[in-house]
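Pasting as-is:
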Amino acid sequence: MMKVLVTGISGRMGQAVQQAVAQNPGTELGATHDVGQDVVAALAQADVAVDFSFHGFTAELLAAAVAQGKPVVIGTTGHTAEEKAAIAQAAQSIPVVFASNFSVGVNTLFWLTRKATRILKQYDIEIVEMHHHHKLDAPSGTARTLAEVVCEETGMDYEKDVMHGREGLVGARPQRQIGMHSLRGGDVVGDHTVIYATDGERVELTHKASSRMTFAAGAVRAALWLADKPAGLYNMQDVLGFTD
């Protein structure tokens, strides 16, 4: 039975992960953690950590995990380039699953987006995401991942070619551009759509989440998958066994 440390326990995802741990026959709750508590002591009571807290906490968690040789599942989004580099550094010592979304359906969307972009790379590509009004970061980590997939397949650059919304007299849309639009309102768990448009037709790939449990269950699945893995940086595509 794998013992799981659930961080960010006061948050919506922390609560969902705790519930998913209880529902999975292969896991049990080892400890919980919240802001201001001792993460070292909490991690000592568990075999693996699942983190959906805040990106500023990741470095502290990873330091404790490396010291104790414990694997980590990171579902927190909004990391800076420096924080992402720290995750990669820690993954040289411990196994880490770092993903913007742990839903099986969303990871299927990632895969489909890659395939569709290879075929439709000459189309205008726009990404629209919507989340609840409590969400702190924009665009969502999932939307950013979708844009990164498009960039990889088209040769575009995220920092140079992604347009975050439009306002004013912006002129005709250039072909070498990915439109990114973030909507916030109500209690929306997470909607993501990738739009491919050209003269005469439009293709849309959409995923809509109605429960946080789909993400939480996927994160627990990732934690179990890490049990026998060597040090390295993995994502949910690895966990699900998706191949290109």
